[in-house]
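Hi there,

I know you've been waiting on this one. I reran it after we fixed the sequence typo, so this is the corrected version. Both the input and the resulting structure follow.
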Amino acid sequence: MVDLHNHVIFGVDDGSKSLEQSIAMLRQAEEQNISVVCCTPHVHEITKDAEIDVMIERIEILRNEIVKNKINIELVLGCEIMFHPRILETVKKFCGTYNDMKSYCLVEFPAFDFPDVTGELVYELNMEGITMIIAHPERNGRMAANLDELFNLVKYGALLQMDIGSLLGDFGSSTKKACEEIFSYDAYSFAASDSHSLGKRCFLMDKGYEVISNLKSPEVADLLLKTNPRKVIEGIKIDNDIIWQNFETQMNAKSQNGFMSKIKRIFGSFS
């Protein structure tokens, strides 16, 4: 499996606090049959180049340490960018896209909202050949409550990444419900750990694979945890037209079913 989202680089954000913790986290990942860990530390508009240099230095330290400790995992550098209006500048930095391939960037949004300019910037990134992967949209209040707005972002060119912890209920029942609803439209292209530690927010990829296999199928689990993430780190384009078209079809079907149910209730009251 390929984990696209975690905070395993030590001492650079709210994830791993030490080299020892990072090594323990990577051992855990290996035990869960994760072959590639894409390190995605938080990056903000105000993040300085010197801070990015530290991230680069520490992933190199981790690469050396996993060889010493015989941990069979490949480390890829990316980042989780907090959305801001000048995001095009950030993605051009060394860690702005996965593997510095200028193909995919991981972006998170504030907990309760997202700027109205988001769709425009998703489109602009797409015109530059860069696909925005929206991190855990189920944890964003506005996205979770307004799926039509979320899927408009997909229509502009974005792809969606589920936090496995959301599906497992680790962020509360409302987030779990939102995750399940988005998932019911087959809207996610990826599932990732968003691992921060060895505790509650650990990798959980094995559990995620099992739950997704049971809810959908092993083929869907393979797509979200293996096939599509592999395409990201190799810079291979993922077509999101099918995702949008499927959503539109299902939304129309649900609206039609809702309308027919309402008609039956109205006329049923006269029988």
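Quick highlight: The beta strands are 2-3, 36-39, 42-43, 74-77, 80-82, 104-108, 131-135, 159-163, 188-192.

Best,
R. S.
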